[in-house]
Amino acid sequence: MNSEPRDADNLGRVRELTPTEAIDLVGRFEAGQELPEQMRADVRLLGSLLGRVLRESGSPGLYDDVERLRSATIQAYTDETSEAFERAAAIADGFSIERADEVARAFTAYFHLVNLVEEHQRVRVLRERGDRPSRNGIPDTIASAFERLSSEVGEETALARLQALRFHPVFTAHPTEARRRAISTSIRRLSELLGERDAAGENAAETRRTERRMLEEIDTLWRTAPLRREKPSPVDEVRSVMAVFDETLYTAVPQVYRRIDDVLQGENAGSRAPIVKPFVRVGSWVGGDRDGNPFVTASVTRKAAAIASEHVLLGLERTALRVGRGLTLDAGTTPPSDALVSLWHRLRAADEDAAAEIAERSPEEPHRRILLLLARKIAATRTRNADLAYRDPEHLLADLRTVQDSLVAAGAARQAYGALQRLVWQVETYGFHLTELEVRQHSAVHRKVLDELRAGHARSEQTDEVLEVFRSIAYVQERFGPRAAGRYIVSFTQSADDLANVHELASYAMGPGERLPVLDVIPLFETFADLQAAPGILAEIVTHPAFVSRMDATGRRLEVMLGYSDSSKDVGPVAANLALYEAQAKISTWAETEGIELTLFHGRGGALGRGGGPANSAILAQPPHSVDGRFKLTEQGEVIFARYGDADIAMRHIDQVAAAVLTASSPSIERRNRGAADAFADVAETMDVASRERFFALVKAPGFAPWFATVTPMEELGHLALGSRPARRGLSVESLEDLRAIPWVFSWTQARINLAGWFGLGTALDAVGDEQRLREAYEQWPLFRTMIDNVAMSLAKADERIARRYLALGDRQDLAELVMDEMLLTRSWVERITEGDLLGNKPVLQRAVKMRSPYVDALSLLQLRALRALRDAATESETPDAEHQRLLLLSVSGVAAGLQNTG
Questions:
Q1: What is the reported pLDDT for 738?
Q2: Required co-factor (predicted)?
């Protein structure tokens, strides 16, 4: 392997394009993507502004070098000749290390801008579409789902299911968001400017002013360091996630409720009590997930809860003030109820000076005065002023409903169910805690600590910390309410004892006479063996006294978490998907028989190897009664900002997912899924066995783990300041068990192989062999269709030529051939089953992938150059070159931005 730069001019096989030819090639390529006209104009505008920034602020000749590499990778992508690809690689290798650094930054900036344009176009489409139903007949709004469900089960039953609906996303701090928050903030400002430019319309002066500000912002983006210098702390991660609540979710969720009620009630909306009940609950592992993260301590958990509470109480205070200032209804036209007058006297007695001042400013405006005093009580809750503070959100809700009832009685129903109702929804959704903080710890840690405690040994530092966590949960519940914390997830649950251990640890933690925290202990079944054992473990644990007591208190509710990441790494993506379906079916049947209200918690990541892909199609493919109106899943890394970073997109996502949750319980969907699972059980069995054998042939091969670390940038990812959590469990990677699922997936993605999302499927389909039968499965079996569609996306983002170069970094031709043979076999079968090109049935996604691919190729070639240099240094036992390390990390960030669903 030689890391020396190659001279593109010495290849002699494919001449380099002239500037005019390059411009023509790039233009033809971009024109061939069939972009909507507005989107094309946005891409052209931001691309030209970036080019201007590169010419003005980059080093001399940078813009020309970026264009050389860009045209070369487009040429290689369009004609697919090895000579064209070699020229592109030679250009990447021929840059000085300083120039390669700048070029990588330029392509990464381009991806940030393209991502912004795509998001902006999506918002345009959403606004233009409005409430129009989907074209494929599958409900994709709650209103359309309610209509379909009513036609099957009757309106009364459908209404009961709607009002029991629950969507529970849980934000996690898993490190898959490769860009800095400073970069995200700059992109958000650019998004606002793009909207202002749209609004400017024909106003040429305003358009010029907006474009000048966009140029300034892109220049700032270019000059901002793209990499974090240090890993974020868990508290940093908490504050980063809070930005999503502040900027979108706090206001977006009640808007979702309002839109649904508008559709369901028509002209009566806003003048009657809403039909829809708040169905969103937001959870968080940020500051609570300590499985393998030594930096998440009990102190961090307490801080995380306090930060979240501060944010929501500030929001509620400001909202109450705004609503109060708008309630300028005179007592003559809108007389207060007796209950409202009593509330006024009570509030005035507790806050005399403020009440007198407010009464003077708001004479004869009783409803306004109450809201302004309630705002003061919310502020006192935030600042911990015991004389005025609310004890819990239920008392605030009671006061708000007193105001609502008074308004309704006085004939002011629109004021009761307008802005005031949005405030009520916010309190019902977020309480005083904002996020329901969840704790996660590994079962092995519990066993080790309990062994020490039962033996009466001196308590170790780890034992003290584990016990302090339970005291922290009790503290959070006491200060912010029982909803603020209490879910305790046990990673790698392998027995009922693993769950009972949590309650025993809690009893050790609390002193004599102290009240135990309220705990909902949740098993997390992750490996293939654990998924198979799950029904038996659950049947045993629900007889445990602590579980019996808690289930009696909650109406026999039980939550069970399923891990997608480790099961996929354990047996491969095909067998893992089938095992997850089977586990859900068995657990759901058991729960229904036992009269248990089950919630399945899906530990999905962003990438396909971690359960990623469209959530709504996955929901509609679940076994009967495994959803039943309740859906909970993890949201992490780049997925959080992609789904919830923009208010319009967040509302659309929530609406789509909730619609799927409601639709999944319809008899027709349940019959379809049950029938398909029975009809294609033989296909599933054949695929399961064949895919596992193929997967084991790779991952259980002698020396696989170090080979994997050689042919991907896995080791280097540990140097990228993505998140606070370590990338592996041990000091080195000698087996897959040493490696966490996130870097396993992230590394294969960076190598443009995406192996974690598809390996074994080609062999599984080949084992079935019947092409017509597989096409029938694709048409009739939702689980199979979702699997095929997700693999199609994974393969579309992979690149055979670049993959071969990564695999060549390792001295194992046998393993490299195994990977490439399976890739080609899988691609062939997927194209035959779908009867077209990859993603041919998803033209918008196909267009996005094709538009990005040659630009991702450029970054991959730069990454390969850096990786070869680092591998050569390791072979020679030399100190790694810091400049090549930086280039590699820059390219990792850029490839992540280009491919998007990376981890």
A1: 61
A2: Mg(2+)
* Residue 733 reports pLDDT greater than 60: no
Pairing of strands 557-563, 520-525: parallel
Instruction: Say if residue 13's pLDDT is above 90.
Output: no
Of 107 and 851, more confident:
107
- Tell me the torsion sign for CA atoms 812, 813, 814, 818: positive
Confidence of residue 129 (pLDDT cuts 50, 70, 90): confident
Whether 382 contacts 308, CB under 8 Å = no
Q: What three-state secondary structure class fits 293?
A: coil
Q: 436-606: what CATH class?
A: alpha beta
Burial class of residue 732 in the structure, from the number of CB atoms within 10 Å of its CB (0-12 exposed, 13-18 middle, 19+ buried): exposed
User: Residues 838-847: what's their mean pLDDT?
Assistant: 78
User: How far, in Å, are 42, 356, 445 from residue 879 at the CA level?
Assistant: 45, 73, 37
Q: Which residue has the tokens 């810091």?
A: 882
Domain borders along the chain are 25-135+181-224, 235-434, 436-606, 673-841
The Cα–Cα gap between 613 and 623 comes to 18
Report DSSP letters for 577-605, one per residue: HHHHHHHHHHHHHHHHHHT-EEEEEEE--
Strands (E), 756-860: none
309, amino acid identity: S
Tokens of 403: 């105001």
Number of Cβ within a 10 Å radius of residue 157:
13
pLDDT grade for 459, boundaries at 50, 70 and 90: very high
Cα 168-268-368 angle, rounded to 5 deg? 80
84 against 157, higher pLDDT: 157
Residue 567 clears pLDDT 80, i.e. is over it: no
User: How far apart are alpha carbons 284 and 634 in whole angstroms?
Assistant: 9
Q: For the residues of 152-186, what is the DSSP string, one character each?
A: HH-HHHHHHHHHT-EEEEEEE--S---S-HHHHHH
The closest of 527, 571, 614, 898 to 759, measured between CA atoms, is 571
Rounded mean pLDDT of 505-514? 91
Judge residue 352's burial from the number of C-beta atoms within 10 Å of its C-beta, 0-12 exposed, 13-18 middle, 19 or more buried. Answer: exposed
**Phi-psi region for residue 703, left (φ > 0), alpha (ψ -120 to 50) or beta?**
left
Give catalytic residues, as residue numbers: 174, 569
Contact (CB, 8 A) for 193 and 217: yes
Mean pLDDT of the chain: 89
Task: Say what angle helices 667-679 and 142-153 make with each other, to 10 degrees.
Answer: 80
Split at pLDDT 50, 70, 90, the class of 5 is very low
Phi and psi at 384, nearest 5°, equal: 65, 45
Q: What is the share, in percent, of the chain residues with pLDDT greater than 90?
A: 68
Residue 630 has pLDDT above 80, yes or no: yes
CA 235 distance to own-chain centroid: 19
Q: What is the CA radius of gyration of the chain?
A: 29
Over range 475-483, report the average pLDDT: 92
CB-count burial class (<10 Å; 0-12, 13-18, 19+) for 363: exposed
End-to-end CA distance of the chain: 30
Buried residues in 235-273 as b, exposed as e (16+ CB within 10 A): bbbbebbbbbbebbbbbbbbbbbbbbbbbbbeeebbeee
- The most distant pair of C-alpha atoms in the chain lies apart, rounded to whole Å, by 92
Distance CA 571, CA 695 (A): 7
